[in-house]
Give the backbone structure.
Amino acid sequence: MVIPGRDDLSSARAAGAAGTSAALTELATEQAPAEATQAVPVGETVARSQWTLIRRRFLRHRLAVVALAVLFLLYLSAVFAKELSPFDLNPKLTASVLAEARHGPSFKHLLGTDELGRDQLTRILYAGRISLFVGLSVALVSTLFGTLVGALAGYFGGWLDNLLMRITDLVLVIPALAILLIAGQKVKTSGGSSPEIVLVLAVLFWMPIARVVRGVFYSLKEKEFIEAARATGASNRRIIFRHMLPNTIGPIMVNATLVVGLAIITESTLSFLGFGIQPPAVSWGNMLAQSEGSVGTPMAYLIYFPGLAILLTVLAVNYLGDGLRDAFDPQSTH
Amino acid sequence: MRHVRHRSSLLVVVLALALIAAACGGGGGKKNNAAPTENARKGGTVTLSAEQELDCAAFLATCGNSLWGTFALGQHVLPLTYNIDPTTGKQVATNLLAGPATLETSPVQKITYKINPAAKWSDGQPITSTDFKFTWQTIVNRDDSYDKTGYKNIDSVDDSVPSTAVVTFKQGQPFGDWRSLFAGFFGLVPSHILQGKDVTAEMTNGFTWSGGPWKLDHWTKGQELVLVPNENYWGQKPNMDKVVFKFITDTAAESQAFKTGQVALMQPQPQLEQTQIKALPNVTTIANDRFDYEAIWFNTDKPPVNSKAVRQALAYATDRQAIVTQLFGPLKPDIRPIQSFTTAANKAYYQQDFARYTRDLAKVDSTMKGDGWAKGPDGIWAKGGQKANLVISSTTGNKRRELTEQILQSQWKEAGFNLTVDNKKSGVLFGELLPAGSYQISLYAQTPSDGDPTNAGGCSNFCSENIPKQPALSGNNYTRISDPALDTVLRNVDNELDEAKRLSEFKKESAMLADDVPALPLDPLFQPVYYYNNRLGGVVDNPVYGSFSTLAKWFCKSPSC
Amino acid sequence: MLTFVARRIVFSIPVLLIASVLVFFFVRETTDPLARLRAGTKDPTTLVREKHRLGLDKPLPTQYTHWLKDFVQLKWGTSFVTNRSVAADMKSRFWNTVQLIFWGILLSGITAIAIGVYSAARQYSALDYTFTGLSFVGLSMPPFWFALMAIQFLVFAPKNWLHLQNPIFYSVGIHSAANAGAVDYARHLALPVLVLSVQLIAGWSRYQRASMLDVMSADYIRTARAKGVSRRAVLFKHALRNALIPLVTVMAIDIGALFGGLIITETIFAWPGMGQFFVTAITNGDTNVILPWLMVVATFIIGFNLFADVLYGALDPRIRMA
């Protein structure tokens, strides 16, 4: 049984900065102490069988497997958007193209057209590229950075740990969307390219991961096998990379998956408000921004589909994260 | 017992049916009268939507410069000397004056305003020439005045006779657009109330005095502004009891409010989704030109658009009619691109010099080849190793501009030009890029307060002395065109007080600009009016003051307006 | 306890200051408060005069210290753009947001706890899976999209299908001008509160469920059952109370975040609250509004976080000693 300790509360707070995902991230971070109690001296053979166990547990979670398949399909459809769709993303605006404007879903245009006659399904497929790219990149960047910072803070403690905590407090104090809007102003100035958006969003998401890793390191630091490793003369680097980090893989992966979903939603929110990806680049968020006025009109279908695309993707990501969490910690209350 | 139960259940059924009928049918509704009579019914409250909230009610100051400030409050409470006639677009004297002001041009410019003896403020005090003097002094002396243009040319205002104001200009500083003084987006402020006080502070949060048909009842920031009739107004008193402006800044929310009947009239920025609103039953749409327009502006200092030939070629490469039709056709079927730097609402001064620039790929070819360009293997023009790579910068977050740019990209690509879009935030575009000249092509609008030729392109936009210069970088000639002959003509238009001479100079100006093409006029920007004609009557649109210019003449057609 | 609270408050002050400095410099670097004037005025002297009048021609650090000096004397100043008193505007905006928050957490709290308890009690039942699925969906949707769909299907669809004169729910603002009454207010409040609640309920119900399951597998619960206490009593008298502790603290944290976190909801529903206030100020680079806004919102976040910690200690006797 795990009594949510104060550490978990503060990691929930750090997660709270990213929005009302407090629950999910909190549940994920709960696993850190649990994982720690399970920590087994990591050696080659033991690792391999542990991974097999993890994989087997994951496969038992049917929804997560389905989610993984769905995500893979989404990824493929975004990558092969050009091949999949008979229409151009930005067709030459000839009279015949313009004449197709504002048509609802039909056999020719499965998801309808917008006011310039552009096929919506095509745009959604291409927009998937940016949204998925942003989601994955933000997760990658924030995980790498967060893990690094969390590991150092957790292992060395002292002033570094204090600094980390204070920085987290600082960012916590400003509401997440406010930070993003403020940072997004800079992006708007330069035209809103994806890498900049990724950096802006990563600013927000590295903290929960850092806290999780720090939490694991803290609890592992005093364990006997670490002491043993130190006694045999292992360097700090070796201890961190070979002994401690592998124990954080579980929570890191779970957190990273959740960040992908949150990043996609946050990017779409920013673009919706006009601060993220700028036209003519197309993302699900700025498609919704452009179609906001269609509520209550026959063109309302312009709103349904980009939103459904986001929902489907993030839902799959969240179920995947759920499955990963189960795979890494079967003891979690589910 | 059984009888009673039957009767009561019958009653329930009847009541239920009545409720449903009331919910569905609503009050008034469908087809009362096909041709409503114009007896203006008295009384009623009407709710309208305002797309932007005015920042402050200090109309003379910088914070007071907002279109909706004028729409919702300014024009109703500050008396104006001249208003715009909606049919001709010309400035005509209002009932503040006993007749049009008289103008003398020598030895210096002098205007004599004869004030209507019946004109008075809401507290009963007459409107006098002292108010003219006080307004002028406030504008020129204060640091936070929005626009001192014209007022700083005035040498003195003689208020020795209360009913006559004589405005004398400084030697050598005539002001052609003099009808916009004590009019336009400001008006007169009462000296007897504001004398000795901080005018901006007194007015910022709203004020209850008035010199117009309405006065301010209350302004709840963020929510609504309410007007009630001014009992001491000397002109035609309003028909309605109350006008409520609801601030709905999100355009989608505004449409929803109108569609669901929560507001009776709206005058928003045009959006294509409004075709649905146009089609609603009992909705009247008015889509008249204002003086506002949008144009494509070239930086005549930056290659390749520093070459007149390239600019002309681009003008021939653009199908401006197709653009305006695609953007606005569904809302305003008769829309045409503008052919000079003003709109057709300006009946006195509108010219057609740019009409020669219709899409003609043959002319593009001949013009470019004549300037030494040749099409490369990729179909893009090149000269001396440089390709015709163009970059257009407009403001972010403006869907109409984004669509325009996308259509331009497509059209110009076919003609052999490669156009990239690089939009910036409004503050960056107008604050840095345009003044510093770090742009190549831009797309933005002009919103003149009247049809005077100084505002139709004019010296402020095309005179060489107005090219932004270090260090202050002030001056609105962002195209950086510098042509002494053009300068002379432009200054003549500004300073000339004789109408006939002005018009001929303006025609010269138009012809020169159409040859030089420092900018390509594109679309007239209108603000469509949508209202429920079964609830509201008496609505007429005005090119500057909007449909609210006749607010006093509006009337409710049914008890619930 | 008192020293704990005092220490936290004292440490928050430098954090607030640093945050305000960072935000000030960043906003100033990216946005020009005079931008609106540039696009409009013909008079070349206007910009120069205005810059001087607002003190924008001074070096940035000087501008910041000026603002700070005024702020600590509780002079909140006027907006660069509207020239209106920041304090007065903030007060009315704040009150409007509080209304949304109040009704939102009332609805969400009750619903989330109910769902959480039910799901834990009937773990693995069909309804449990349904609730879990719905929570996932709730957490996977962009909130602004849900708002638009809510408007489409709860405002327009009923109005069109049932041919109503007025829609059942309104989607714009706080009141209709003509009708200021409780029912009218409720019809305006319904959709924004719904949108806000979906997010909260999705997260809180999952949390409550997990918390309940945790508690219910505890030894003391098993003892109570073994002693013959009814399932219902165990659930409500023992498990729920203990399970609520972590949830309540998470709720406190989330509520603190709501004061600055309703930006999307307020924008879409034209609800004149703190969020909308902030977006306008950010777009205009109006630091005279942004900084006080930040101070107010940050104070609430810090305050509620502190409250959460204190509450946690107060409710859970095991923690108190720590």
Observations:
- Chain B touches chain C through 63 residues (CB under 8 Å).
- Residues 293-524 of chain B form a domain with the Dipeptide-binding Protein; domain 3 fold (CATH 3.10.105.10).
- Residues 1-6, 11-37 of chain B have pLDDT under 50 and may be disordered.
- Chain B has 15 helices and 23 strands.
